[in-house]
């Protein structure tokens, strides 16, 4: 039977080559779709009452969704057992990785931005960020795309890979469930401040080590960025998001962060990095750094597989 690092390496290569295997899972949908539907349903039923009740029910939601996802992963691994059925585990693992999808989405921003189509670039970047995008200029579109690429390298690639190595398919699906819960309810607005507290804190724990590994890989891929990462990562609002974002800012020698708006409400964020704001060509540069960082992750997993 293939060891976990070997399974993961196959999944990383397969996902980068062909993306999400819709031909295999199209009839039942992507696992994140199931997780999202469960979170939305429970949130509608449970998110009411006082702060204490909301925190308790939000914590129960995270426990049920993450525990359920891990249980499904365990059942899938147990069923797969030996031989060719292990390829089913590899195929399921590809659904938890987002190397190709992330590359596709950021390239969809870079193309119109390079061509001077600001409206098309705004529409494309709105697909991958939660901030208001209608009034963004070229530089702020570039900032949004590069930040999303750097942060999602952790959330969508390194973190699920890390947890697969630690705990197999149960670990990967638990990681995806926690990340999905955080993206849906881990906000600080009036509706989710208390109900989403457990999701946000659990996501902080799950991504703690992967975020720092992501920053390390970005710096290695870009042959620099260490000083900016170590200096500015702690200024980010997230205890984890600043590591890959500050690393990317340092590698590109551009300034990320700064104020944004969400649903018309301004949000003041720290600046990351030195130098000018990025432009269209810097989005392309960030994609090459990202691709090299993914390759370094493959090499790291391959080294682990070689020594086990």
Automatic annotation (TrEMBL):
Q: Where are the transmembrane segments?
A: 20-42, 54-73, 289-307
Q: Which GO terms describe its biological process?
A: cobalamin biosynthetic process
Gene Ontology molecular function: any one: threonine-phosphate decarboxylase activity
| Entry's localization field | Cell membrane
Keyword Transmembrane helix applies: yes
Membrane topology is: Multi-pass membrane protein
The record's section on InterPro entries has: Cobalamin_biosynth_CobD/CbiB
Q: Which GO terms describe its cellular component?
A: plasma membrane
Its pathway, per UniProt, is:
Cofactor biosynthesis; adenosylcobalamin biosynthesis
UniProt keyword terms in alphabetical order: Cell membrane, Cobalamin biosynthesis, Membrane, Transmembrane, Transmembrane helix
Membrane is among the record's keywords: yes
Q: Which family does it belong to?
A: Belongs to the CobD/CbiB family.
Q: Which NCBIfam families match?
A: cobal_cbiB
Main role?
Converts cobyric acid to cobinamide by the addition of aminopropanol on the F carboxylic group.
Q: What is this protein called?
A: Cobalamin biosynthesis protein CobD
Encoding gene, per UniProt annotation: cobD
């Amino acid at each position: 039977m293939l060891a976990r690092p070997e399974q993961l390496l196959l999944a990383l290569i397969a996902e980068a080559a062909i993306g999400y295997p819709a031909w295999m899972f199209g009839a039942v949908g992507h696992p994140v779709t199931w997780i999202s539907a469960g979170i939305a349903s429970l949130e509608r039923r449970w998110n009411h009452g006082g702060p204490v009740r909301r925190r308790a029910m939000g914590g129960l939601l995270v426990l049920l969704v993450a525990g359920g996802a891990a249980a499904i992963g365990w059942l899938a691994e147990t069923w797969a057992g030996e031989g060719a059925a292990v390829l089913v585990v590899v195929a399921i693992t590809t659904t938890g990785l987002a190397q190709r999808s992330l590359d596709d989405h950021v390239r969809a921003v870079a193309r119109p931005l390079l061509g001077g189509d600001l409206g098309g670039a705004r529409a494309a970047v709105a697909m991958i960020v939660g901030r208001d995008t209608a009034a963004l200029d070229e530089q702020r579109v570039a900032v949004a795309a590069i930040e999303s690429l750097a942060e999602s390298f952790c959330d969508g690639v390194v973190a699920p890979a890390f947890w697969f190595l630690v705990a197999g398919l149960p670990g990967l699906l638990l990681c995806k469930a926690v990340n999905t819960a955080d993206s849906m309810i881990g906000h600080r607005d009036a509706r989710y401040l208390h109900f989403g507290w457990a999701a946000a804190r659990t996501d902080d724990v799950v991504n703690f080590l992967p975020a720092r590994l992501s920053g390390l890989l970005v710096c290695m891929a870009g042959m620099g960025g260490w000083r900016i990462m170590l200096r500015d990562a702690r200024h980010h609002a997230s205890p984890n998001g600043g590591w890959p974002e500050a690393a990317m800012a340092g590698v590109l020698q551009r300034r990320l962060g700064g104020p944004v708006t969400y649903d018309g409400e301004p949000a003041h964020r720290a600046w990351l990095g030195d130098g000018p704001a990025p432009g269209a060509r810097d989005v392309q540069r960030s994609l090459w750094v990202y691709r090299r960082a993914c390759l370094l992750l493959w090499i790291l997993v391959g080294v682990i597989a070689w020594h086990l």
